[in-house]
Amino acid sequence: MNRARVLSHLLSRVPPRAPRATTQALALGGSRCKASAPPAPNALAAEPFLNGSSSNYVEEMYNAWLQDPKSVHQSWDTFFRNTSSGATPGQAYTAPPSLAEPSPHHVPLSSIAPAITPAISDTQLTDSVIDDHLAVQGIIRAYQIRGHSIAKIDPLGISTVDSSESRELVVRNYMNRFNESDMERSFKLPMSTFVGLNEKTLPLKEIIKRLEDAYCRSIGVEFMFINSLEQCNWIRQKFETPGIMAMNQQDKRLLLARLTRSHGFEGFLARKFSSEKRFGLEGCEILIPAMKQVIDRSTSLGVESFVMGMPHRGRLNVLSNVCRKPLEHIFTQFAGLDTGDEGSGDVKYHLGTYQERLNRVTNKNIRLAIVANPSHLEAVDPVVQGKTRAEQFYHGDSEGNKVLSILLHGDAAFSGQGIVYETFHLSELPEYTTHGTIHIVVNNQIGFTTDPRMSRSSPYCTDVARVVNAPIFHVNADDPEAVMHVCNVASDWRHTFHKDVVIDLVCYRRNGHNEIDEPMFTQPLMYNRIRKLKPVLELYAEKLIKEGVVTAEEVKEVKDKYEKILEEAFTSAKSETRVFNKHWIDSPWSGFFEGKDPLKATPTGIHEDTITHICKRFASAPPNASDFVIHRGLQRILSSRMEMIQARTVDWAMGEAVAFGSLLKEGIHVRLSGQDVERGTFSHRHHILHHQKMTNDTPVDKSQYNSLANLYPDQAPYTVCNSSLSEYAVLGFELGFSMTNPNALVLWEAQFGDFNNTAQCIIDQFISSGQSKWIRQTGLVLMLPHGLEGMGPEHSSARLERFLQMTSDDPDVLPAFSSDFAIRQLSDINWIVANCSTPANLFHILRRQIALPFRKPLILMTPKSLLRHPDAKSSFDEMVEGTEFQRIIPEKGIAAENPAGVKRLIFCSGKVYYDLIAARREAGIEDKVAITRVEQIAPFPYDLVKQECDKYPDADLVWSQEEHKNMGSWSYIQPRIATALNHERHISYAGRPVSASPATGNKKTHTREVKQLLEDSLAL
């Protein structure tokens, strides 16, 4: 036939409607055919597979076949060949091969009807076979998707995760279709399962048995929501492959030994310190072998450093048996001894550690750190991630192959605290990823006294992890070997895909919330069952004895050996007279403090050539990039920067850039993070320039230029990164980052100052008190835009008063003045709070963070309107060598020339200074009123304030602020000025009255308040 006749002929032979089963087969992917295979010829009516009409589709296929018969699926090739040979419609279509072995009642079609060609098929028979095969595929898929919901993962047997409904969902695909005799029929295994080894077919009952073994025993696997076929297949293979979970005898003996130590440690503490809270691990003793297995497996894959965070439960056991912290150090924490070094310390189950030791299983040296954290259970999560990221950064571990974070969680906290969700959403952001975290949930199936029905709306406490497609492995904590397999898979997953993974250890809490709590008050059913359960050590020992792996004598020998170790350490600890907080440092800075004068800082001024060079780079387009198109608005900004260079001045953005650039030149890594920090919330920074054109219809937003990263050929790296819309997690992350390396400037900028509200837990529990509790220093900088600009109560105040209230200096004690007074104050205080009014002072205080011989957090109120205020500029002369940060900036005008004639001395801080000098100038009283700026509010500059007051002996003293009287600095300033002056002079307040709201939302009211503030401040 010619082409036209063949096409017409074959179109007339296309069956008008595809059989239901065949269409269903196409929708589910069929058998082992390629996923991209087109539908078989008799499925042309399946509309989802056709674009346009059947005729157009067939014509396209036929044209392709004429060019190359191999370009179409084999079924189409057969169809076209038969049609071209003149076969009738029924003869042209060739049925696919049988998907199941024939049943005893199946009579081949060829035996009852003569075949014109081998292509003849029995449609009814084919549909039945295909339906059976599809039902088997449905069974397999149901186990993969929902098998976890009927897995025996609860050692108490009280789990109610959709059990009755889920069981029906799993089995309904075959119970109604297959009878008992069908269980012996063999079915071809699809590519979507690994239940076969080398078998291509298996009896249905064997398929179901292997699926039960994989998904419905002690492990429940949630993974089918992952949108990667490669990852799903990887997980299927790890659980479906027969025999993959088997352990050899040596590994079983090691597991028993580790379980013995975990159980023995808790029992020893219970006997020796029966009335002490310790938040023991009873009911989940398998956690210790689990963590050690993760560490062993990861170490064998190349990991050298582990950064861990965890809540109370089991912490002492983890410190002892995972990190190998000396037992003597742990036991002295129970003794109530005086501290032998700095810091107020913390309760024992909040403390961290850092240990370097040999992993005897892999014979490799490893580093282990547990980050100290408070009772805010999940608050440590982002801190660990930041610390891990920093270790990876400074070790050049760009893929996370050498540094791994492990986070332990409680079930109620994991589902209940939003910081878990925020931390998960950092997991794959370019500047925040740690390339996969292994999460281990100690699932007590209860919070304090609240059971899951009252504490979450989701079936599992781990459902939050699904938002980042993390696989979740639920496992019965009373099946130690199943736990070990899950730990191996989780470690391999993280190494292979560099993504988060969750191990849900479903266990119980043998005691109450703590050892002196009575759980029967609220959970009588649960605790009646718990009291009848044997400990997991006993269960596993009996199992291994029965298997012949160990003897009862060997079990006792291992137990007695560890008991002896504990007793010896306990005896040794009795000789200690003090407890040392330094033993619990989780972030040691080796060599940082040695060989330094603890009260001497390096100068912060720099050479003018350096200032000029940095400013020019900051004001320039990318060098040698003539095709890099800059936004016209940015071109004007760059031009204005060049003009400032000519005038030897800097504005706020340039002062900050010179601080960063000069530190980068000195080899100090600078990291600036937060919402919109690349541009700056107020469009003042522009550290990242974006190419404005499109190339080949493709947006090139990724074509960027970072001027501060290109200042010098051998400079330190500069990281500036926009964060997710999170304060709690991102600030915690940057805190963790700053703890790792003292020779780095790490800054977090809030989009508006009051956004620190949602990060208050990190501020209160870690930043303000971290050094006192855990001897953990940090030089982290918080930049908080602050100032009442008439824009309403939101985003006006950074709540300066809160930071000052948490400052650890005594308002009633005047420190002794000395030549090193300023730095001694910094050394003694918990953090620094400042509100700078000039770019030069910003430059110096940022550089001072690195110049100090120690590290302190810096809380920096930053401006909004001052970013472009014509008077808020500084000369190069204020930044060159020989200059330094000015804790106060005294009056330098005509009032200072005749102090005896000054009637009023105003102290103020920040933006209000520029309003005051403008109002003073307008009133013509510049010789009568002196205005002094307090740039460093805490620690309070007693010496300089007293010096200023002594200079103007006849002046009334006024504190002027734009915040309301019950906010801002007044409550902090007033008693300290009184102390500085020995209560001999009075200082009055000028500013807004008390208020519940930080600022008015009415523009007219705001203007009236500013006018009144200035009048009250300047009134003589």
Summarize the entry for a quick read.
The protein is of the alpha/beta class.
How is this structure best described in words?
This protein has 1020 residues and is α/β, with parallel strands linked by helices. It has five domains: 3-94, no CATH class; 126-240, no CATH class; 249-584, Rossmann fold, CATH 3.40.50; 608-786 and 835-878, Rossmann fold; 889-1018, Multifunctional 2-oxoglutarate metabolism enzyme, C-terminal domain (Rossmann fold). Helix content is 39%, strand content 13%. The chain is built from 35 helices and 30 strands. The strands form eight sheets. An eight-stranded mixed beta sheet has the order 3-10-11-9-8-4-7-6, with helices on both faces. The protein has a seven-stranded mixed beta sheet with strand order 19-14-20-21-23-22-28, with helices on both faces. Strands 25-27-26-29-30 form a five-stranded mixed beta sheet, with helices on both faces. Strand 26 (904-908), helix 32 (912-923) and strand 27 (929-934) form a beta-alpha-beta unit. The radius of gyration is 36 Å and the shape is globular. The termini are far apart. Mean pLDDT is 87; it is low at 13-38, 42-54 and 96-124. This is 2-oxoglutarate dehydrogenase, mitochondrial. Keywords: Glycolysis, Magnesium, Metal-binding, Mitochondrion, Oxidoreductase, Thiamine pyrophosphate, Transit peptide.
